[in-house]
Structure formats: C-alpha cells, structure tokens
Amino acid sequence: MPELFDVHTPSDAWRKFMALFRSVPRAERVAVADALDRVLAAPLNAPHDLPGFPRSTVDGYAVAALDTYGASAGLPALLEVVGEVAMGEAASVRLDEAQCALVHTGGMIPADADAVVMVEHTQRVGGTEGKGGKQGKDGHEDEVSVSVVPLFSPFSIEIYRPVAVGQNVIQIGEDVRRGDLVLPAGHQIRPQDIGGLLALGIIEIDAAIAPRVGILSQGDEVVAPEETPGPGQVRDINSYTLAALTRRAGGVPVLYPIVPDRLEALEAAARQALDENDMLVISAGSSVSYRDMTAQVIQGLGEPGILVHGVSVKPGKPTILALCGDKPVCGLPGNPVSAMVIFDLFVAPAIRLLLGAQAAAKTQVPARLARNVASATGREDYVQVRLETREGEQWAVPVFGKSNLIYTLIRSDGVIRIPQDSNGVAQGSWVTVELH
Amino acid sequence: MPELFDVHTPSDAWRKFMALFRSVPRAERVAVADALDRVLAAPLNAPHDLPGFPRSTVDGYAVAALDTYGASAGLPALLEVVGEVAMGEAASVRLDEAQCALVHTGGMIPADADAVVMVEHTQRVGGTEGKGGKQGKDGHEDEVSVSVVPLFSPFSIEIYRPVAVGQNVIQIGEDVRRGDLVLPAGHQIRPQDIGGLLALGIIEIDAAIAPRVGILSQGDEVVAPEETPGPGQVRDINSYTLAALTRRAGGVPVLYPIVPDRLEALEAAARQALDENDMLVISAGSSVSYRDMTAQVIQGLGEPGILVHGVSVKPGKPTILALCGDKPVCGLPGNPVSAMVIFDLFVAPAIRLLLGAQAAAKTQVPARLARNVASATGREDYVQVRLETREGEQWAVPVFGKSNLIYTLIRSDGVIRIPQDSNGVAQGSWVTVELH
Fold it and tell me: Mind listing the pLDDT tens digit for each residue in B298-347?
C-alpha cells in the first residue's frame, strides 16, 4: 500500500512553500521596557546623537591637550584647577591657558577642553597623589554639588603624562549618530537593545503581533491528559508539546478539543481552526488512513492547497506543507519525535515568517560523536543525542529510542543532523548538537 | 588613587561566593501545560508504565510470530483475519492458531498476539495487495467502528515475510517504566517535557518560584528614559538592560527610582530593595567615588558582607560580590558592556541558584576569528564580536567599541572569551561565540 506522493528534500520543500507564501506581519505599539523577545515591525533610526555631549571616560582633569605636551615625571606640566564639573550638570566652567577642571567618569567636558588626564597621572601640588578626585567628591557628598562651582577653591596639579586631543573622551555621537539605523525591521529585541533604545529616548516601538497558530489533534484513541486512559487509549501528548514549541517560536498556540476519527469531524474542526487563526497545524495519528484523511481535509481547505506531501527526512517523512487561502497549514507526523523534528524544520520558520522576523539563532554546541551513526544517502537523518562530559570533553551519545516514544526526546539533550549526501558519521567526529 | 581590593579570578570569586551561599528555593504548584521554562522543585517519577498496553507501530496484522516462521514470497503463510482492533478500544478479539487481527498504528495488540506484520508484506487472498488495512478503515469511517468486531467479515491473507516476537510492537513500559525517574529536581521544563509529563497524567508540578531581583541605579546624571536629558545628563540604560537580563535568567526584576549621588540615599534605597527582594543588584556610575560609595553601602547591609571586590576580567574589573543576611548582593560596573559581561558571569548563575536550577545551556556557535586579538595573561578578556558569513564559513569579527558605549553590544552578536593563561588568539582560529 504505497502512499502516492512525491518526496521532496527539506530545502526543496521549503522553496516550494516560500515561492507561494506572502507574509504580511501586523504590528502593535508596545513599551520598549516590556519588549524583550518581541520582533521589530519597522526599522528604527537614532533621533539624536548619543552621547549628546562630550563625556569623560575616566576620573581626572579636563584639559586642553596642548597644555600637557611634553609633560613627564621629570618635567611635569603645572595646571591650575579652576572648577569641578558636577555629575549631571552642564560644564559651565571656562578654562584659560594652563587651566583645567576636575571631572568624573561620565561627566561633561568643558567647551575649552579637548582631553582628560587621568587622576592617576597627576599630583596635587602640596597634596598627596590622587587626592583631587576624592576631595571634589567629598564636597559633593556634603550636598553642595548643585552649586559647587562658586564654592570651589582653586588648586594646582602636576601632570606627568601628556594626553592627545580626544583622549579619555567620548565624543558627541560616538555611540550612535543621529539618523543611523539602530535596529532593522525583523530584529528580535535582546536585553541590550532595550537599553540602547531607551538611551535614545525611544520608549515605544512597533512590534509584530504574535501569529495565532491553531493546533488540532485527531484520534479515537486520544484522551485529554487529566483523564485516565482505558485499554487501547493514550493521553494527548502532541497538542501540548506543539503548543509549547509554538510559544517558543514566537506564536500564540490555540488548542482545540481532540477530533474524533471521522472525515466530517476533521473537516469541520480544521475549517474552524483555520478561520480563527493565522496558521494551522494538524497532528493526526500515524496510520495511513489517518494520513490520507488529513491530506484530504487539507486539500479541501482552500487554494492552492497541498504544496508538499512527503519529505526525505528521517524521522518525519509523512509531512504535508500547504497554503490554504494564504494561510500556512502543516500536517505533522503523529509520532512525537517526528513531529518535533518537522516542527523545527518547517513550522517554527513559518511562524518566524508570519512575525516578519529574521531567522532565530539556534542553540548549538560542538561535541564529539560517541559512536558510529549510519545513514542512508538521499535522506537527512536527525539523530537524538544526550550530552556527556568525559575527561573535560563534550560527547554526543546517540539515543536510539523509537520515534514514537516521547521519552526518546526527554532523555536527549539535542539533535544532530546527518546531511543528505552522507552515509554516516564516524565515532569521534566533531558534530554540532542543536539543543532542544 | 589605587583602589584597595584583592582581585580574584572569576572562578575563585565564584568559589568564594559559593562557599558561603545556601540557596533555599521556594516552590508553587503550576499546571504542566503552562510550565514551559519553569524549574522543577522536586524530582518526578512515573506513576505508571507508558504505554500501559502493547501498541502496534505499523498498520498491519497482529499475529503469533510462530505462525509466520518460514514465510516467504514463494511460500507465504496463510492466516485468517478474524477481527479488527478499533483505535482507542481494548483488543478483545481472541486468536486461535493461524488467526490474526487487523490493527492500526498505535492500536492495542490482542493478548494472543506477540508481533505485527506490516500490511505491505501481506496480500488479501483473492484481493489486491494491501487492501486489508484500507478495507478495515473504510468500515471505520462508516461509523460502525465502536461495534466493528461483531460485524467483521473474516477474510484470509498471505504473509510474505516472517516476524520475530515483539517486532513492530511497543511493549508495556517501553517508553518509561513505573517508578522511573522522569525528570530531576532543578530541570527546566522544555516543550517535550510537557508532553511527556501529560502522557503520564502528571498535570501539575512543583515549580520553583522565580526569585525577585531588586535593581538599583545611582547617579545625579541619570534621568528616566521618558525624560529629555539636559546638558551633562544621560538616560538610564543599565536598569532596563539588567531587568531584561534578569527576566531571561528566570528572575523577576524589580526596578527602583534612580538614587541620587548621596551616601544616605543609596543606603536607604539599598536596604529597602534588599528587604523587598531575594537578591540585590546595584549599578552605580563608573567613577571611583561612586564605586567606593557602593562598596561602603553593601558592606553595611548585613553579614558576612563583601566576599569579592574586583575580578580579573576585562571589561568588568570593579565588581563586588557579597552576601548580606544570606541574600546575594552584586555591585556591577557602571559601563553597559562591563555590566552585561559580569551579569552573565555572576548574576545569572546566582539567579539559577536561587531557582535551584541546573546550569542553563548557553547559546554557542563556532566561528573563525577574523583578526588577531591580543590579551594580557592573568586576566580573562571578553571580546564582543559580530558574526559574518564569508564563503559559507562563519567568522567572528571583533567589535572594538569602548565598553561604555551601549551600541558596542547592539552591533555585536555575541562574545568570545580569551582565557586567563592566553596572551591572545590568532586570526583564523576557531573560537566559540556565546550569543547575546
């Protein structure tokens, strides 16, 4: 009883799908502070220079670099400290020749200065080394900082090293320039992006709305997890695993009640779930009749219908990729291991497309293969592996459970891919493990 | 003005912290279906065998293997099909010698059978190859499946290949055995774990309560992101970046208003934040006086106080690790790049300890270094890199922005670590990039 479908390689299957799929992500306004892991719907440009004023990168003295040229331990430059720039205030102090101002890390540089001498390379005349910064700070702590300049008592310092123009200074716009592209559309927001956007005063962004993914499971033998299965019955595994995988990929899973094993029931449930969501995933049983029924139902859901029926992947061959009324529909193999492999190959990327997102980075670790793994050429093999550290080296130990055992996935830490043109990988070879 | 602290290597610093830190994670009951990424507070064992009955892995005929021995294309075994096992029902059909029952993938095996012959290796006598399964299914679709056995019309099949005892059958407990450890305490729930737990009827678990992490930023120059900074002022970057990093590590960030640059203000804010949370992170400015003030405040928060002041890491040297009244307190460097490096090294692992969680897998990719990177021995260097694909190979291009520029982090995709005993890494070497 051979099934009548053309088997595609995974990349061919994806190309066929992509050739017809047009994603139109929708956006909503969200606060940047709450936008971790959200996907940008539009590119963001800098509204102004960052920083907006020249800042010191050290504790020290803002100087005209020219005043320090030739300075050395033997022949120090002598400068007068005529003021302090308090943190968070404009550097209003004016400097004449051979004058400088005390500045703190992150403080503003006065207009007449173009560099900062580190306090470590100075000595207060008549004082102890490096006391300058401390003293200024003490005044600060006495809460006179808001009006510290008028109360400042000038003193003199010796400088033992010259500085170049711009040294120890962050220039205006050195972090990012006004108008620069800050983050492109499709970028997924990381912690540091939140900081970078807020630094520019961007407190709201247009983020892609998470696509709703309808998840349908079928089978007369399947009961809900809270029920006690009778003989011949099993609890629903795939719906909840697929829901969690959907959430992780950036979608909103929408679960439906288990569909009984009748064509009309599956048709009605599939049509409703497709109407109510942006995408549909059907996980039926693994018997041929289930698979035939799934294909028949998907084909009736809308044009263009089934694009791919069968991929050269082990496990996961009986996969359906379809577009029904512009919405992606995926028929997954019923075995949990196969369903997860196919989810990663096709469903997660489709969710990313619906989000308008750039491809997500996969969590990968290098490891050495603990035993020989054979593979048939012409087919991509996905082998579940457990990671083990042996004498400081990471090893990938194949977990050869049947693909209809959910605990094959639970006992493994990740998966390795044996390419289509390979007939296996030798023990001891370095492989890349994609973590679950 | 040298700061008076002993610099520790990162591993020494962590050991010193771990020697005194005792984490007592708290747990709450949560639904497994909502438990993605939660951390198990207690180990879970299987309450029963999975599967609970012998299941077929193929569409075919449940047989006594003995009845098929010696079967071949030239000399097929002839068996009578006396019933069908409907999906989701007990296999009540009784088999005598040379009798078998039609079964579907995932269906139960009758008590008298010990193997399943794939339908592809049979032919219905007088019918076409492989029609048996289809025919049974057709009856199924006519909705007589609930009482199909009485209505079943026996027929005969030829079998062309022998099967061994157990072939194409999942045995009782083959997925997981009653009493087996299913998941250990500290395990972070993945999508497949949700499926595996629900398959066993485990619908609620004890999950660690996410620790609350108080985040304090200090500085007279710092204004809230929605404000327009005046000359010398900057918007708060670190609070929100640290909050997002905290959330990603599994904690609940609790932000406080920016603390003005006065000792009493920082003391009061730190004491309140420590009281209200399980952990405290203080991000002050980068000037020495800020750092001194932070150290002084942390030392006064409770015993044993500061354990580590200064780590041999670039960037990130002025780091404080403390335990105050059994709660971890971390003083982070003020520069955003340094703060993130130190967060990953110490704060994220401390949050994992508070969760009772196993170490999280880091997202790593191998890449070749695009240029020579020098490093001083005796210090770990963390170099921000951008990933670039060149002729199909992944390259790590160092991003040499100053560590006080937030966009250094945004322009980079990850970080490479130059070990303490290395004086650099040569261009073209393979390195491991830990993605942001």
Answer: 999 999 999 999 999 989 888 999 999 999 999 998 889 999 999 999 99
A222/B89 Cα distance (integer angstroms): 11
List the single residue in B134, B195, B235 with the smallest CB-CB distance to A241: B195
Side-chain-facing half-sphere of A193: CA atoms under 13 Å: 26
Q: If you count DSSP H runs as helices and E runs as strands, how many of each does chain A have, helices first?
A: 10, 28
**Residue B147 pLDDT > 50, yes or no?**
no
Q: Which of A238, A286, A413 sits opposite B195 (nearest CB)?
A: A238
Establish if B288 touches chain A: CB-CB under 8 angstroms: yes
Q: What is the pLDDT of residues B324-334, one digit of tens each?
A: 999 999 999 88
Q: What is the pLDDT of residues B112-138, one digit of tens each?
A: 999 999 999 999 997 544 444 434 333
**Which alpha helices (H) appear in B229-328, and where do they start and end?**
238-249, 263-276, 288-299
Helix (H) or strand (E) holding A158: strand A155-159
**pLDDT class of A168 with cuts at 50, 70, 90:** very high
Fold of A27-51+181-208: Molybdopterin biosynthesis moea protein, domain 2 (3.90.105)
pLDDT at A259 over 90: yes
B358 touches chain A (CB under 8 A): no
**B chain contacts of residue A124, beta-carbon cutoff 8 Å:** none
Give the closest-approach CA distance of A184 to chain B in angstroms: 11
3-state secondary structure of A295: helix
Intrachain domains A10-23+210-355 and A364-435 with the same fold = no
Which CATH number describes the domain made up of A10-23+210-355?
3.40.980.10
Separation CA B228–CA A8 (nearest Å): 57
Q: What architecture (CATH level 2) is domain B210-355?
A: 3-Layer(aba) Sandwich (3.40)
**pLDDT, tens digit (0-9, with 9 covering 90-100), for B345-393:** 999 999 999 999 987 767 788 899 999 999 888 888 999 899 998 888 8
Question: Does ipTM surpass 0.85 in this model?
Answer: yes
Architecture of domain A55-170: Beta Complex (2.170)
The overall average pLDDT reported for chain B is 89
Q: What is the pLDDT of residue B129?
A: 46
pLDDT at B142 over 60: no
DSSP tally for chain B: helices H, then strands E: 10, 28
Q: Do B85 and A232 touch (CB under 8 A)?
A: yes
Specify the CATH number of the domain B364-435: 2.40.340.10
Q: How many CB pairs under 8 A join A and B?
A: 336
- Asked if the C-beta of B32 comes within 8 angstroms of chain A's C-beta atoms, the answer is yes
Q: Which of B137, B240, B436 to mutate to test the interface with A (most CBs of A within 10 A)?
A: B240
**Cis preceding linkage at A328, omega within 30:** no
**Comparing C-alpha atoms, which of B226, B233, B238 is closest to residue A106?**
B233
Residue whose tokens read 């956006």: A27
As its CATH architecture, domain B27-50+178-208 has: Alpha-Beta Complex (3.90)
Are the beta carbons of B405 and A174 separated by less than 8 Å?
Answer: yes
> A56-65, A107-116, A124-133, B252-261: which has the minimum mean pLDDT?
A124-133
CB within 8 Å: A199 and B225: yes
Mean pLDDT over residues B69-88, rounded? 96
Statement: residue A361 has pLDDT above 90: no
pLDDT at B4 over 60: no
Residue ranges covered by each domain of chain B? 27-50+178-208, 55-170, 210-355, 364-435
| CB-based contact A295:B114 (threshold 8 Å) | no
Which residues have a Cβ under 8 Å from the Cβ of A197 and sit 6 or more positions away?
A32, A44, A182, A183, A203, A205
Shortest CA gap A263–chain B (Å): 7
Residues of A in contact with B237 (CB under 8 A): 195-196, 198-199
Between B366 and A344, residue with greater pLDDT: A344
Predicted confidence at residue B405, as pLDDT, reads: 83
